[in-house]
Each structure stands twice: as structure tokens, then as C-alpha cells.
Amino acid sequence: MVAAILLLIGLRIHYLVNVAEVRSYASFVGAFFSSLQLGSLYALIALGYTMVYGIIRLINFAHGEVFMVGAFVSYFLFSNTPYTVPGAILGAAFVSFGVMFLATLWRGHRLGHPLILAVGAVSLVAFTFVLSTASLGWIMAMILSMLTTGVVGVAIDRIAYRPLRGAPRLSLLITAIAVSIFLQNFGLLTFSQRQTPFRPETMWTDPFSFDVLGQAVFTTNLIILTPLLLVVLVTGLHLFVTRTRIGRAMRATSQDPETAEMMGVNVNRVIATVFFLGAMLAAAAGVLWGLNFGSLNQPAVFGLLPGIKAFSAAVIGGIGSLPGAVLGGLILGFLENFLTALFPRTPDFAGITEYKDTFAFIALILILLVKPSGLVGEDLSEKV
Amino acid sequence: MPDPKRNRNRLLTLAGLGVVVLLLYLIDNSGSSKLVQAFALFSIWGIAAVSLNLVNGVTGILSLGQHGFMLIGGYVTALLILPVQSRIRIIESGRSSMTEETLSISIANFFSAIGLESLAAPEYLWLQFIVALFIGGLAASFFGLLVGIPSLRLRGDYLAIVTLGFGEIIRLLAATSMFSPYTNGALGFAGVPAEFGKSVWWTTAILGITVFVMARLKYSSYGRALQGIREDEIAAAAMGVNLAYSKILAFVLTAFFAGVAGGLWVSWIGTARVDQFLFTLMFFLLVAVSVGGTGSITGVLMGTAIVVFIRQYGDPLEQTYALTDWLRAGGLIVLAGGFGAFIYRAARRLRPRLNAMVWVPLGLGTLAFAAALVAPGQGWLEGSFRGFGLRAILLSVLLVVIMVFRPEGVFGRSEFSWAAVFRERRDRPSDEERGQDAWLSNPDLADRLARQEKREGDE
Q1: Cβ contact (<8 Å) for B164 and A350?
Q2: Alpha-carbon distance A188 to nearest alpha carbon in chain B (angstroms)
Q3: Predicted ipTM?
């Protein structure tokens, strides 16, 4: 199957380059790398969907908006720092709460544990100092934005989803939609009401070109950074899920929440952790998205479409499965970018670029009708 | 057995209709175009929400594709009744992607073609509009059929996302070159006749028809089959309900009325453009259905009234005010939330009574309120802030609160009835019924009766 698809793609490329002579091999190499970048972004967002769905069977509709929050928070971190002191304290409070949460994951302490409180106090002072004096670079902004957005994810779970544990799943989905609309409009209210340029000073967005068969491929350094960050973050996530106590608790909860609870797993804590990690990855994706496209769309629409598409990616790969989310994200990236490169605009054909936003939905509907468990996932359908 | 209060109820219903007509007359002549628009919008969104209720509430399938159906109905209606002057303007603008051929599609031309020249005149625009609405509804219901097909294989949240996917596909495709000869791409149509969508009479009449059809349907054998599907799909199938037929019927009917609502919505705005049919519209309908009561037509109408009221009269929220005013108002709201949480926990006897959901809002609210009081003297927080998007925030908070505290909505599944107004209880049998039923009439068999008789004997 895979071989047949690759063969078809090869034949199509051969036709376009050597027979129709409308494209060069170099353009397909360029399309390959841009698809890989887009796919990595979808994969990072899709991981959040798949983890949440795997544990509480909720389509976290607000995840796309969490991604939006991550992008905007990092924007305000690298473009507006240093802050005045009250602003710095507020920002540092968010960040140090994230640090405290991260610290609880290490040995499973409670948030109120003296050690954790000490960590929080130290980081509050340190980050207040940093935010009120230094001008941050984009990497620091990304890390702090990941921590802040993680806190936002935990807060969403605590305020909106946790009171609904055990409620019908459709009520939970409606709540998630409400949270999504809330965050969209909260973004309009506080972040920005229009397109925002996203241009931190970094070498990663500098142009980068290389030759393929005598023809130049023009890209940016991001073709190295984006997949690299995907690999780093996914490896970190994999290690966390497989090597730590709370990771083991996560896997147990996703298999059977009730039994896991009976075995002493603090299920609410596991769910909060999942929201924290998912939001962190989404924030990283938001920063990379901004670097990739050079601007952030207005908050009401920025997260919606990438969010739903990443959910489709998670379903394509098999919802509930981490490798599935990465695979699905990459496939979706290639569907959107490489497929349009395979059917370019020619004088007698309008091309399929204008339809590319619908590919994710079509793929979603097809995969749900044909193989609801996704490409590598297990079957999560309801049983009698 | 005939209802003993039937005559009274009929009279009351007639009187109620009379009051509605009087009210509409007063609104129509009130001279306030904002009020007229609000009532027309209530009716239009009411049509969409009441029909969405058939799928979401009665059948228990969460459908998120209503905006797609409305788009189809809206575009079809707009194209079919667009006046000649507007068509000429589209051609002359030079930026349109419509051809002479697609622009000649209209009800008027259709009437001329079949020899009804007299009906093609602009005086008969109302008749053309009715026909166009009907065709728009039919076109939407065809897509309802398409969207209904996945419901045979999928359930619950997956199905919800697929319906959302269909709605978004429809919206995204409408602006592409495949359909732009009929939709004029992203530019859309301007100059759609507004006298129907902005008229309270037209919209209320169609809302009345919709409510009548939906209410009759709900208590018909089809409606009971749909409710059976909501309660337990497998049990319904075992009782002989044809799942495929029933679900698709629900989708098709819903899509038909959504298409009609879309036609009126286009007329209300006066233009047909893709960005009138965003997911936000679907969200408004979802709030209307969920807040009022999923499955209750009365509840859905109440929910629609809330949504429309906030949309039409909530604009003071989105004005620019001083930062300290915002802080004071926000602090008060958060404080009220904290007190509400405390009262809730006290009433439910939850321990600890002062948990984070109580003291965090109380603390934050006090802090904000105190800061707002101190700030003007200190010269802090100068400047102002525009509450952009606060109406949608209000609606989303309302939806979350409803979902947390009363997931079935304010009305639940109960409907308005005169019996409920007069607090008559249908579940208490009449003396005649008691005489017919051994369990109800024999105190030896019914504990409750025995107790009641004993009590009456004591007195």
C-alpha cells in the first residue's frame, strides 16, 4: 500500500518534470521540506489532542486556542520585555506556577509540599528579576511561554472540565467548544485584534539554499529547527511517559481509569498533567508557527483551523496513540503541501491550492468511515 | 379520554396568539428599527435553533454543521431572488467570477420560462421569495442527507466532529473557483432584498410554522422513534425502530429548516457572504439549544431569546471605558462568583467549605476592587480599554455554567403547557381512572392511598 502510493507519487513527479516539464526536481525537494515543517507543527498540536482523548475521551476543542495563547504569550515575551514591575510579577507568577507544576512531576510531591513551595518562591523572585530587567530572546520566550501555557491548560481543566467528570461526553464536548470560543474572544480582548507580525531576532529564519541537480532550493534555516524540535520534544515526552511514575500512571489511566484509580493512581492529577504537557507542546508549536509564517493571525481565527486540522491528524494516526499523532501530523502536512505541489497550477488547470484547507476534513471523514481506529491506533469505539 | 380542560386551553391558546399578534403589531409600529431587527433575528435564529433541536435534543446526536446548511439555503435563496439591478452591478464590477449564464438563474426567469409572465414582475417578489426559500430549504436538505449518512456508522463526539467537518467543507468550498460562478467567490452577493428578513411578520410566521411542525413531529410516532434513539440506540433498534431511516429523516428535516433560516438570515443582512456563516453562528445556535433545554422547543426559544438579546443589546459591553472601571466591574463579578461558589458549597454541604474555588475568586476580586479604588489617587492604571468580544465571552461563560450546574438546560425536556401554568398534575390519576385500576383504587394494594386515607380519617 505504502509502496504503491510512493510509486504513484514518483510517477507523477517524473511526469511533471520530464514529460510536462512544468516543474523541476528541486521544487519537489522544497515542497518536501515545507511539508515536513507543516507536518511537524500539526504533529506537535495533535499530541495534545491524542493524550487528552486517550485519557478522558474528550475532544479538547479548546486545544487550538491553547496553541493560539502559546504563540501570543511568546510574542509578548520577546517583543515587550523588559516589563514594568507589576507586569513582571504577574508574568513571573504564571511562569513560576508552571515551574512548580513541573517540579511536582519529578517525585510526585503535592503542590503544597514545602520543597515545591520553595521552588516556586525562588522562581518567582528570579523570573520577576529577569522579566523586569532583561530583553528576552525567542528561545527563552518559547520556554516561558510553554510554562505559562501549561498553566493555562491546567486551569482550563480545573475550571471547566473537572466539574464535569462523569457527565455525558457530549456535555463535555459542548463545554470544550464554549471554552474555545471564550479563549478566542479573550485573545481578541487582550492580545490583538488584527494580524500580528512575529519576527524575533534569530538566525533560524534566515534564508538557506542548497542545490539539487543544479537547481537551487530556497528555504530558511527552519527546515532544520522545526523537525529537530519535534524530535527533541517527542523524545522528551516519550521518556516522560515510559520512564516516570506519573507517566506509568498516565498509561494505566488511559487503559482503564477506574481500575487505575483503585490501584492508587490520582486520576485528577494525571489528567492535569496531560493538559499541562499537551498545552506545553501546543505552545511550542505556536512559536514555531509564528517563526514559519512570520505573523500571527487574529486570535479569533488563528487557532481554530490548525486546531481542527491537528485533531484530524490525531484521528488519522489513531487517536489515543502518541506515535499515531506524530504520523498523522506528518501525513496531514504532506497532504496539504506536497499534494498541492503534485497538482500545480498550469494554463489549463487551476491547481488545487485553494482546496487544501478541506483536505484535513475530507481525510478525517474518510478515515472515520473506513477505519475509525486510525492507522496505528487501537479501537476506542463504544461497546454495548 | 378527552382532556376536561381542553376548551379552556384552546381559548387560552387563541388568546395567546392574539397577544402575540398584538405585540408584533406594536413592535412593527414602534419606530425602533433596532427592536424590529432584534425580533426578526430572534425568529430567524429561532428557526435554525428549533430545527437543530430535532437532531441535538430529540435524537441526541450532536450536530455541529448547521452553519453549512444555513449557508446553502442562504446562497440559493439569494441567487434566486437577487433583483436585476444587483445582477447588473455584479457584472459591471468586473471583479466577479459569475457568468451571464449563472447570473440569469432566478425565480423570475423561471416563471417567465414556464409562461407565468405576470408572476415574474417585481410586485410578486413575495411569491418568488417563498418559492426561493422552499428551494433553498430543499437544497440544504439534500446536503442534510449527505451529512446524515455518516451518522449510520459513527456516534457521539466523532459524529459531532464529522458534522462540523461537513459544515466547514461547505463553507470553504463556497469561496473556491469550483463554486464561485454561483456564489461569486469571497465577494458574495450584495443587494439581497431585505424586506422579508427584516419584517417581524414574515419571520415570525415562518418561525410559527417551524415550531408547529417540530412540535407535531416530536409527539408523532417518528418523534418517539427519535427519542428512543436518544435514550438507547440498541434498545430502539430492538423495538423495531429503523435507525438509518430515522436518523437521516432527522438530519434532512433539520437541514430543510436550517436552509430556510439561512435564506431569511441572508435577507436580514442584505448580503450573502461566506463570513456570515462562520462557526461562531453555529456556536450561537449551540448556546441557544443547550441553555434553554436540549429537547425542549420552549427552552430552545428561550435560549434563542437570551442569545439574541445579548447580541443585539450587549453592545454597551464592547465600548471603551477607563481601566479602573473595568477593574472595579471585573473585581465585583469575580467576588460575586466567589460568593456564589461558597453558597453552592454550603448548600450542597461540600467539605471543605472554603476550597480554592471560593477563596481564589474572593481574594482576586478583593484585590482587583481594592486596586481600582486606590489607583486613581496614585496615578496608576491610567488609560482606557475596549471590551472587544465581551458578548461572546459572556455567552461562552453562560454555556460553561449551564453545562456544569444544569447540563439538561433550564427547561430540561419539559415543554410549555397550560397545565404546567396552572400547576395541574397529569401524573395524579382522576377519580374515574382510580375506579378503573385496581392498583390505584384499592388501598390494600397502594401504600400511598392507604396513608392518604388514614390521614383523611384522622382529620
Answers
A1: no
A2: 6
A3: 0.89
